[in-house]
Write a structure and sequence with these properties.
33% of the residues lie in helices and 18% in strands. It has one domain.
Protein backbone atom coordinates (compact mmCIF):
# COMPACT_ATOMS: atom_id res chain seq x y z
CA UNK A 1 0.00 0.00 0.00
CA UNK A 2 1.19 3.50 -0.74
CA UNK A 3 0.71 6.60 1.44
CA UNK A 4 -2.35 7.76 -0.52
CA UNK A 5 -4.06 4.39 -0.01
CA UNK A 6 -3.32 4.46 3.71
CA UNK A 7 -4.46 8.10 4.02
CA UNK A 8 -7.74 7.56 2.16
CA UNK A 9 -8.61 4.42 4.09
CA UNK A 10 -7.65 6.06 7.40
CA UNK A 11 -9.78 9.11 6.60
CA UNK A 12 -12.74 6.94 5.55
CA UNK A 13 -12.55 5.17 8.92
CA UNK A 14 -11.95 8.37 10.90
CA UNK A 15 -14.26 10.37 13.13
CA UNK A 16 -17.52 11.51 11.54
CA UNK A 17 -20.59 13.48 12.61
CA UNK A 18 -23.96 11.93 11.88
CA UNK A 19 -26.24 14.21 9.88
CA UNK A 20 -29.44 13.37 11.69
CA UNK A 21 -31.88 16.14 10.78
CA UNK A 22 -32.82 17.67 7.46
CA UNK A 23 -31.69 21.23 8.41
CA UNK A 24 -28.19 19.83 9.12
CA UNK A 25 -28.31 17.99 5.80
CA UNK A 26 -29.21 21.22 3.99
CA UNK A 27 -26.29 23.04 5.67
CA UNK A 28 -23.91 20.29 4.57
CA UNK A 29 -25.30 20.17 1.02
CA UNK A 30 -24.87 23.95 0.68
CA UNK A 31 -21.26 23.67 1.88
CA UNK A 32 -20.55 20.88 -0.62
CA UNK A 33 -22.09 22.84 -3.49
CA UNK A 34 -20.18 26.02 -2.59
CA UNK A 35 -16.77 24.36 -2.28
CA UNK A 36 -14.95 24.64 -5.60
CA UNK A 37 -11.78 22.74 -4.62
CA UNK A 38 -12.89 19.68 -6.57
CA UNK A 39 -14.76 16.68 -5.20
CA UNK A 40 -14.18 13.02 -5.89
CA UNK A 41 -17.39 11.00 -5.73
CA UNK A 42 -16.76 7.28 -5.31
CA UNK A 43 -19.36 4.52 -5.15
CA UNK A 44 -17.45 1.38 -4.07
CA UNK A 45 -20.11 -0.94 -5.49
CA UNK A 46 -20.41 1.05 -8.74
CA UNK A 47 -16.94 0.49 -10.13
CA UNK A 48 -13.34 1.61 -9.77
CA UNK A 49 -12.51 4.86 -8.00
CA UNK A 50 -12.55 7.93 -10.24
CA UNK A 51 -9.21 9.20 -11.52
CA UNK A 52 -10.23 12.85 -11.41
CA UNK A 53 -12.63 15.03 -9.44
CA UNK A 54 -16.13 15.92 -10.65
CA UNK A 55 -16.71 19.06 -12.62
CA UNK A 56 -18.90 21.62 -10.82
CA UNK A 57 -21.79 20.60 -13.09
CA UNK A 58 -21.33 16.90 -12.30
CA UNK A 59 -21.17 17.66 -8.58
CA UNK A 60 -24.36 19.74 -8.69
CA UNK A 61 -26.16 16.95 -10.58
CA UNK A 62 -24.90 14.35 -8.07
CA UNK A 63 -26.04 16.45 -5.10
CA UNK A 64 -29.50 16.98 -6.62
CA UNK A 65 -29.93 13.30 -7.51
CA UNK A 66 -28.69 12.11 -4.13
CA UNK A 67 -30.86 14.53 -2.17
CA UNK A 68 -33.95 13.31 -4.05
CA UNK A 69 -32.94 9.69 -3.39
CA UNK A 70 -32.42 10.27 0.34
CA UNK A 71 -35.61 12.29 0.81
CA UNK A 72 -37.56 9.50 -0.88
CA UNK A 73 -36.13 6.83 1.42
CA UNK A 74 -35.87 8.83 4.67
CA UNK A 75 -39.41 10.13 4.92
CA UNK A 76 -39.56 11.20 8.56
CA UNK A 77 -37.84 14.16 10.24
CA UNK A 78 -34.50 12.35 10.32
CA UNK A 79 -31.98 11.89 7.54
CA UNK A 80 -29.47 9.66 9.35
CA UNK A 81 -27.74 8.14 6.31
CA UNK A 82 -25.06 10.82 5.89
CA UNK A 83 -21.87 11.27 7.91
CA UNK A 84 -19.29 14.04 7.57
CA UNK A 85 -16.13 15.33 9.16
CA UNK A 86 -17.68 18.86 9.32
CA UNK A 87 -21.14 20.26 8.58
CA UNK A 88 -19.83 23.66 7.48
CA UNK A 89 -16.36 22.93 6.05
CA UNK A 90 -16.42 19.28 4.95
CA UNK A 91 -13.49 17.39 3.45
CA UNK A 92 -14.95 13.88 3.64
CA UNK A 93 -18.57 12.68 3.51
CA UNK A 94 -20.03 9.17 3.62
CA UNK A 95 -23.53 8.43 2.36
CA UNK A 96 -25.10 5.08 3.19
CA UNK A 97 -28.03 3.31 1.60
CA UNK A 98 -30.79 3.76 4.21
CA UNK A 99 -32.17 0.31 3.33
CA UNK A 100 -28.93 -1.36 4.42
CA UNK A 101 -28.41 0.46 7.70
CA UNK A 102 -29.22 -0.87 11.13
CA UNK A 103 -29.50 -4.56 10.42
CA UNK A 104 -28.97 -6.72 13.47
CA UNK A 105 -26.51 -9.57 13.20
CA UNK A 106 -25.71 -8.91 9.55
CA UNK A 107 -21.99 -9.35 10.06
CA UNK A 108 -19.65 -6.56 9.10
CA UNK A 109 -20.86 -3.00 8.62
CA UNK A 110 -22.03 -2.09 5.11
CA UNK A 111 -19.86 0.02 2.85
CA UNK A 112 -21.04 3.54 2.17
CA UNK A 113 -22.98 3.84 -1.06
CA UNK A 114 -20.93 6.93 -1.91
CA UNK A 115 -17.92 8.69 -0.49
CA UNK A 116 -17.21 12.32 -1.29
CA UNK A 117 -13.76 13.72 -0.63
CA UNK A 118 -11.04 16.06 -1.76
CA UNK A 119 -8.63 13.12 -1.57
CA UNK A 120 -8.36 10.86 -4.61
CA UNK A 121 -10.11 7.63 -3.58
CA UNK A 122 -8.75 4.11 -3.57
CA UNK A 123 -10.76 0.90 -3.79
CA UNK A 124 -12.40 -0.14 -0.54
CA UNK A 125 -13.32 -3.60 -1.82
Amino acid sequence: MNDLTIDYKARSNGRFIGVLRWPEFETLWQALAADSRGWYVYGPEEGPPPAKPCTPEQMKAFLNRTESYLRELCTDTRCGAVYTDSLTDPDFVKIYNPRLMGGCGMGKAPLPQWLISHIAPVSLL
